[in-house]
Structure formats: structure tokens, C-alpha cells
Amino acid sequence: MGKKAKPSVDKIVKKVNKEFEKTSSQIESLINDALKQFDNLQNQIQEPVRKLLKEVDELRDREMKRFNDEFERRMSEFQDLQNNVLERLGIASKDAKKELKAASDAASAKLSEAKPKAKAAAKTAAAKSPAKTGAKTAKKAPARKAPAKPAASKAPAAKAAKPANKSDLTRVKGIGPATATKMQEAGITSIDQIANPSAADKEKLQAFSKMKGFATLSDEAKKAL
Fold this sequence. Notes:
Strand content: under 5%
Radius of gyration: 51 Å
Shape: rod-shaped
Order of helices and strands: HHHHHHHH
Number of strands: 0
Helix content: over 70%
Largest sheet: none
Number of domains: 3
Distance between the termini: 143 Å
Number of helices: 8
Structural class: mainly alpha
């Protein structure tokens, strides 16, 4: 009986080993399939992620470009506004000088008109007084003349007669201090270059073609000469 049982145990062991190997092979196959599916799934996830990252980068670049363009536009508008304010201040300063000169000329004219009247009054007083008194009055008459204010008041007119400063570009209507500085840096240092520009000067002036009143700039420069 014992001898017959031993072969049966060997068969069972062999059968168990065979089943174990078969099961191991199946498990290994399942693991390989799972790994393949995991790789496929990882590739499927990575592609949308790469695409999303690319779109985020492109959106960031577009927004940065739009921000820079908007910033430069605002800075340009601010500079234009600043130049306009400075040019208006320059024009206002010129108008104030003209008004001051006109007032000075008017005062000089009034003093000139008062001088003959004073002389006529002195002659009338001399004719009514005795001869001696008339002689004394005649001698003192020069001392009683109007003070030398007319000569002083004519001083501004004498100064105005001096040759105009052609290097002061702000004397041209439409050119403020800021624009004048830019023109001097560009090589336009005289009003003559604006009034009667050479070919080279015209090329330099083209850099300011966008400024207000550029079309009449040459005529205004001729008026300032």
C-alpha cells in the first residue's frame, strides 16, 4: 500500500508545480499588459499637458506684448501732453513780452506828448513875468525841464533795436522750450535754418513733421527774423 501511495504524491507535486508555473506565467502576462496600458495612459496624459503648457506660454507672451504696447502708448501720450504744455507756456511768455513792450512804447509816446506842452507853459509864464524875472526864468528853464525819464523809457526801445537772437528757436511761433532743445540736439541751431532750410536742414526738420503747426513753421520763422 505504501509503495502505491508514493507515485500518487509525485504526480500531485508535479501537477501543483505545473499549475503554479501556469499561474505565474498568467500573472506575469497580466503585469506586462498593465505596464503597457500604464505607458499608453501616461503618453495620453503627457500630450494634453504639453499642449496646455504651450498655450499658457503663448498667452503669457501675448499679454506681455499687449502690456508693453499699452505702456509705450501711454508714455507717448504723456510726452505729447508735456510738450504741448511747455509750448503753450513758451507762447504765453512771448505774448507777455509783447504786451510789456507795447506798454513801454505807449508810456514813451505819452511822455513825448507831454514835453511840448511843458515847453509851451514855460514860455507863457515867461511872457507874463517882468524882463529880469523872464531872464532868470529863461536861465532856469532847462533845469525845470521834465526829468530824463523819457530817455530812460526809450531804453527798452533801444534794446529792442538790437539784432534778434537767431539761436533762440522759441521765438518761432509753435516751438516751445522742449521742442527747441530737441531741434538743437538734431543740429537745428538757428532760426535761419528753419526759415530758409538747406537740403540737409529739411531732412533734419522732417523728424519734427508730426508736431502741431509744422506746415507753417518756415513762415513763422521768417516772421521772427
